[in-house]
Amino acid sequence: MAFLCRTSGHRRHAFTGPLLLDVLRAAEPAFDADERKDRLRFLVSVLGRDGHRAVLSWGEIDPEFGHVPAVLGLHQDGRDLGDQAPHLVVPGDRCGGRHVSEVVEIRVFADDPLWS
Questions:
Q1: What angle do CA 3, 76, 46 make, to 5 degrees?
Q2: Which domain of life does this protein belong to (predicted)?
Q3: Count of CB atoms within 10 A of residue 60's CB?
């Protein structure tokens, strides 16, 4: 993945690891099977050890909708991140805006409980 940040110049790093979508699907979120677009009301919250939190919509990472290949990076530039893994990496974000280091929690929410 490549990040471009105007304030600090170019930063390019290659992250490898599982797609966030694959990890989330393994958790089997409670989508309404009768409603194809039910997935679009779900949000994904990712928290890092330092307290930085990023939020993505399910539709953003779902191949039928936005298809952004967000990665949970276990390796950076070919180097195993070890205890610092995983990192959330969202391709296309400017300046790594939703890059979350040392992910400690991932939650999937339907929009209803968050806003009520």
A1: 70
A2: Bacteria
A3: 18
Residues 74-108 pLDDT 10s:
999 999 999 999 999 999 888 788 999 999 999 99
Domains and CATH numbers, the chain: 2-115 (3.90.420.10)
For residue 68, what are its two tokens?
């952004």
3-state secondary structure (DSSP) of residue 56: strand
| 8-state DSSP, 77 | T
Residue 21 has pLDDT above 60, yes or no: yes
Query: What residues does 76 pair with on adjacent strands?
Result: 15, 79
What is the per-residue pLDDT for 11?
66
| Side chain identity at residue 31, one-letter code | F
Helix H or strand E encompassing 98: none
Q: Which two tokens stand for residue 58?
A: 């399910």
* Cα gap 12→7, rounded to integer Å: 14
**Which burial class, exposed, middle or buried, applies to 21 when counting CB atoms under 10 A from its CB (0-12, 13-18, 19+)?**
buried
* Token pair recorded at residue 33: 């099977």
pTM of the predicted model as reported, rounded to 2 decimal places: 0.84
